[in-house]
Amino acid sequence: MSEPANYDLLSIGEVTIPFYDDDLIVQLGEDGKIYVALRPIVEALGLDWSGQLQRIKRDPVLNAELKTISVGVTPTEIRGRGQGAKDHVCLPKQYLSGFLFGINANRVREELREQVIRWQREAHLILDAAFTGDEDSAMAAIRQRYLRQGYDDAWIKQRQITIETRNQLTDEWKTRGIQGQQYGILTAVIHRGAFGLNPSEHKQLKGVEKGEVRDHMTGLELAFVNVAEQATIA
To answer: Which terminus of the chain has fewer CB atoms gathered within 10 Å of its CB, N or C?
Structure first.
């Protein structure tokens, strides 16, 4: 019997947004939503992660929205990388303020109080400045990340096409009731159909130790992925 996956969704892109001396780590989920990683925020505020996670889970609204997002592709790959490796506990962007305002600034250490209040007042403004709440804004931010990493415009354009197709595909899957690790299973099936390899094997072939294999594909390989996923959209 296979072990249960320790993630809910896969990330198709990560953006780091500077916030004073800290960073907001934002994930574009495979379901097309924008998520914010919580642990980096908690640690930046000097708070206990375990305690804050328990507080979130006690809140019926936040707990219902809480997701573990992984850069892995299959449960086997994630187990191979080790427990918790490259996994992020996240909330959708619009619920971040709900989490932050659950922190009582009057009950934290005095030297942390000003920082907590700053996050409560300004974090949502920084996120709104980076994303308007739609996938186009997330895509623009991801494009800037690829430019900083040295990818050329032709490759980035092809990568954006694959992400747009991916979003259409996951919308289709959602209407059919697909959830959680099922996204990764279906992704692996399509990938094998296109390349004769599952994503983990493809990463090994390319010598990719972490991150998404699509970020290491040629333009032609990205085109194959796009055709394969387009073919499955009703």
So the answer is: N
In contact, 212 and 71? CB cutoff 8 Å: yes
Q: How many CA within 13 A on the CB side of residue 135?
A: 18
Residues 76, 200 contacting (CB under 8 angstroms): yes
24/118 Cα distance (integer angstroms): 14
The pLDDT tens digits for 177-232 are 877 667 778 888 998 888 998 888 898 898 887 667 888 899 999 999 889 898 88
Supply the pTM of this predicted model.
Answer: 0.58
Domain range list for the chain: 9-132, 136-230
